[in-house]
Amino acid sequence: MCAGYLTQDTYPSFDQIPENYSSQGDQPLQKLFAEVVLNIPLNKVFHYCIPLHLKDILTAGMRVKIPFGNRITSGFCVGFTNTPSTDKIKDIISIIDNTPLADEIMIKLTRWISFHYCCGWGEAIYAVIPPVVRTRGKEKWDTLVTCCDQTLKLDHETLQQIKTRAPKQARVLEILLGHSGEISAKELIRISGCNMQGLRQLGKKGFITLENKPQDTTPPLVAGTLQRHLTLTTDQQHAFDIIDKRLAQPTPGVILLHGITGSGKTEIYLQSIAKVLEQGRRAIFLVPEISLTSQTIQRIKARFHRVAVLHSHLLGSFHHSQWNDIKENKADIVIGARSSIFAPLKNIGLIVIDEEHENTYKQENNPRYNARDIAIVRASYENAMVILGTATPSLESYYHATTGSYEKIVLSKRIGERELPPVDIVDMTEEIRRYKGFQIISRRLEYYMNQSLSRNEQVILFLNRRGFAPYIHCKRCGFVLKCQQCDIPMTFHKKLNTTLCHYCHAEVAPLTSCPDCLASSIHYRGFGTEKIEDEIMAKFPRYRIVRMDSDTMRMRDSHEKALTAFERGEFQILLGTQMIAKGLDFPHVTLVGVISADTILNLPDFRASERTFQLISQVAGRTGRGQKGGRVVVQSFNPRHYSITYAATHDYDGFAKKELEYRKQLNYPPFGKLARIIFRSFQESKAREKSSLVAGRLKEIVKGNGSHLQILGPSPAPVTRINNRFRWHLLLKAQDHKNIHNALQNIADILKPSSSVQTMVDVDPYMML
Q: What is the predicted pLDDT for the residue at 691?
């Protein structure tokens, strides 16, 4: 076995990589043959001969143009060898990059990713290098679109006529009517589904103006006068002293900073970063949502020079220049969402994962990595510290802290000795019985909203479901409008006057009569954020409301504009999905309403209770952060569920103890490890047959070698059909990753995707639907 990629006391769930996993080990070599990996789902290193004129130029981490089969393609050079794997070695054609795009640590990290998450090494490298960097950020100009007066004067009837003839062009106009200012044509095409030709036609008709302008230039990394650090409280000082001592150690390890909402975790992050910079090292700061980057950027840039930003919503040339600035050592701090963990920052001393429990750190496309876990692996290579900060730790992190793998620091008091807000639980079943009918906004929540708004205070309302009505059915025959391509009901969006599938984005016109029995008894049931918005505007017409969900926050700067306007007091009510549930700090918010605490609780997922507790606790923490105090109202049809009752009393330890008891009985994480295999096919029989074949082979392996591996399934996935592909899945459960990896390697031959069945492996899955 080769040396382990992690010491056992860093993160015990990670295992060593077999020495035969790639070709050669790390040994002194002449540059005779290059080891090249391609962006394909195949974990194999290919050998190529290096022409004499390229020997002194080629370095590991560069891309090369190579012959592969009967075509010419590109690959990443990951190393060199003296002994090729075959006698028939082809020559490298050329070198694509002037300098390496991946350094030694990034090559090592992507090798670990490919092993742990069961993807191709080339797939991992291509995933960590942003596309705009691979294309060298050539786009320097942008076509910007603005509304004309003719569009602003459109009435509903005219818009519907346009929608009948050209629905995508109508969607463009609807988006522009809800957006002030100019918007990038690329962004408009992305969110509307229209193409450039359609935009030009709208321009010719006088509805829009298209103008070519240079893209945003890169702002300077060096700011003006910096703010001083705040004076730490006694609890904060104690936490910082522990971090300070650990930073002085050769391997500082992982710290779980478990601080209640409003306890001052951010100030500890900032002063820890300052300490690392004093040592001549650098820091990465991760946030779970792009919506949080604007507030985080403001706080960090107010304290430090040389700050860079990385996330997927940056414009091309700006994204490219930021990445280059980081690579060329012009930045000391990198802020961003999940993918920023791969920033080409050198000499890292600290990685901060804010709101470490969030499932948005998990990538749901290949490679299906978790940025929190990648941070721990990368820190082990860099001898850096990782701070996992949260008010509601993931049960995995909490367990590792209790077993001593992480050091745990607790902040149990809010800044200024402010109390956590009282939480009122409203039993919606009792509400219906008492008031003889269902109201989306309970009497108690409406009362407290009136109280807060009349005092010129602000209100946040949370519902983790977008759209107007998520369920359309016929009262007479029971028909339910479902997506023809997916196995889920379609959602009515009132503003767009259409019904949408939230999985494949299919769209159909709203129903006026039942297609089965032709009755006009179509009923729109349920509610999403759009319906709540209408309800609030009807009940509180004097107050302005801003809605934040994936329907309204489609523009690159939408999050920042909405939050800035709310912070300035331009809006009194903020309504949104989980993007508003964490990290936001508004001192004038005195009331938070959770419209339905059951949205996640009812999902068929073993993490449903944990996510419900976390969301209620996090959204409750958005209030009571100022001197005015605060209150939380939680509406639920399951008011006595332990995830809700423990959240109402702010008792994380009580919840964790109870939930861990259930997890231990069923051997779910953190006690056991999981991998999910998903089979997708246009024919359900093919997906079922392939899943049965794989399950049968796995059971033979378990029987043959006595492996401690449990196989659950195969069975239809909870959402059985998406985009006309039927989905079957099975779950592998074991005490450690080693058993899972061994089993997956033993069935690698039958896991290869075919023309009829796609196979996806998700190690440490977060989504079970």
A: 94
